[in-house]
């Protein structure tokens, strides 16, 4: 493994803390309190998400894994430059443990593609783990990890010349509100040129009960994942959330096509945050909205792409139409 696989951290810790403080102060001052699911992923949250991906109820990861395995050759052909030796960057937003991506990485290496893998993630620990496992499993791979949120990483990559293939797998796109999703896709598409490619994973609309079960598992791992956000605020903002009086609640709304997750205050309580020098009051059964997880239809995906000035060129699904991996180009 080369020295360059040491993750590059784009945003200093103090700026990150300032952003978290501002986010929490604003989000908990609204009539409907809300916190972004982006903040789930501290090191413990990333570890819990690994556990979620292995749960029997959580179908997206294993479905997409099967999908990528089945279609790896066609996907690689659709993504890589036509000239076999032309170098490119393979940028992955929200790389996590890279389990699914390794299918593509291995295929590209075996077919002599010339590329640098740039995994981007907000969890430094997740990227360290990924770099270490890649060093062992695919030692010939060139890796340049970046610890950053998506927009910071995209800005950095936009300034680099060369062909780009951007991966956004796992239906991470489902976390955006419709407005944010549109803005994000436009930001993503903006710097891309004709020969660049985008691969986006979309979880598809299906049996509502089946979807809901994936976000309310019987072992309570998803509940722990949601509640960990409060533990994080206790640690990083000196908050005094008492986890005995908070619950995980989630539901799927077929009308909006989204799973919504909440933290529910099971009694009237006040929470003080030392770092904000502020106290927040919660009524009994008041909720904090912590996550949206949108599910899509094929026509919606076409519209979404068109509105961002992108064209859908390939649409891969599994045999049950649970999930889609979609190739887009400018
Ligand atoms: C990482 C956004 C794809 O929405 O399915 C899993 C996060 N939240 N269980 C999803 C999540 C609760 C996950 N994504």
UniProtKB/TrEMBL annotation:
<dbReference type="GO" id="GO:0052706">
    <property type="term" value="F:L-histidine N(alpha)-methyltransferase activity"/>
</dbReference>
<keyword id="KW-0489">Methyltransferase</keyword>
<dbReference type="InterPro" id="IPR029063">
    <property type="entry name" value="SAM-dependent_MTases_sf"/>
</dbReference>
<dbReference type="GO" id="GO:0032259">
    <property type="term" value="P:methylation"/>
</dbReference>
<dbReference type="InterPro" id="IPR051128">
    <property type="entry name" value="EgtD_Methyltrsf_superfamily"/>
</dbReference>
<dbReference type="Pfam" id="PF10017">
    <property type="entry name" value="Methyltransf_33"/>
</dbReference>
<protein>
    <submittedName>
        <fullName>L-histidine N(Alpha)-methyltransferase</fullName>
        <ecNumber>2.1.1.44</ecNumber>
    </submittedName>
</protein>
<dbReference type="InterPro" id="IPR035094">
    <property type="entry name" value="EgtD"/>
</dbReference>
<dbReference type="InterPro" id="IPR019257">
    <property type="entry name" value="MeTrfase_dom"/>
</dbReference>
<dbReference type="InterPro" id="IPR017804">
    <property type="entry name" value="MeTrfase_EgtD-like"/>
</dbReference>
<feature type="domain" description="Histidine-specific methyltransferase SAM-dependent">
    <location>
        <begin position="21"/>
        <end position="329"/>
    </location>
</feature>
<keyword id="KW-0808">Transferase</keyword>
């Amino acid at each position: 493994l080369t020295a360059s696989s040491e993750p590059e951290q784009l945003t200093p810790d103090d700026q990150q803390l300032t952003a978290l403080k501002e986010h929490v102060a604003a989000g908990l001052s609204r009539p409907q309190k809300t916190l972004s699911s982006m903040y789930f992923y501290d090191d413990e949250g990333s570890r819990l998400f690994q556990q979620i991906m292995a749960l029997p109820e959580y179908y997206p990861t294993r479905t997409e894994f099967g999908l990528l395995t089945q279609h790896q050759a066609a996907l690689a052909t659709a993504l890589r430059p036509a000239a076999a030796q032309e170098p490119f960057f393979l940028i992955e937003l929200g790389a996590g443990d890279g389990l699914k991506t390794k299918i593509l990485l291995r295929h590209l290496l075996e077919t002599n593609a010339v590329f640098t893998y740039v995994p981007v993630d907000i969890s430094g620990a997740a990227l360290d783990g990924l770099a270490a496992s890649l060093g062992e499993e695919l030692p010939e791979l060139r890796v340049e990890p970046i610890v950053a949120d998506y927009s910071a990483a995209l800005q950095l990559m936009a300034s680099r010349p060369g062909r780009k293939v951007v991966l956004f797998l796992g239906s991470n796109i489902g976390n955006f509100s419709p407005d944010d999703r549109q803005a994000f896709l436009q930001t993503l598409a903006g710097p891309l040129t004709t020969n660049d490619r985008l691969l986006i994973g979309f979880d598809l609309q299906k049996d509502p009960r089946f979807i809901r079960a994936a976000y309310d598992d019987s072992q309570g791992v998803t509940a722990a994942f949601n509640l960990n956000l409060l533990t994080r605020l206790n640690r990083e903002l000196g908050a005094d959330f008492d986890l005995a009086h908070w619950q995980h609640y989630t539901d799927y709304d077929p009308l909006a096509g989204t799973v919504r997750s909440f933290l529910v205050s099971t009694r009237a309580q006040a929470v003080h945050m030392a770092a904000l020098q502020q106290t927040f009051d919660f009524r009994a059964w008041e909720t904090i909205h912590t996550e949206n997880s949108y599910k899509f239809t094929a026509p919606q995906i076409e519209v979404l792409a068109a509105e961002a000035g992108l064209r859908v060129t390939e649409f891969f699904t599994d045999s049950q139409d649970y999930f889609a991996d979609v190739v887009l180009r400018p």
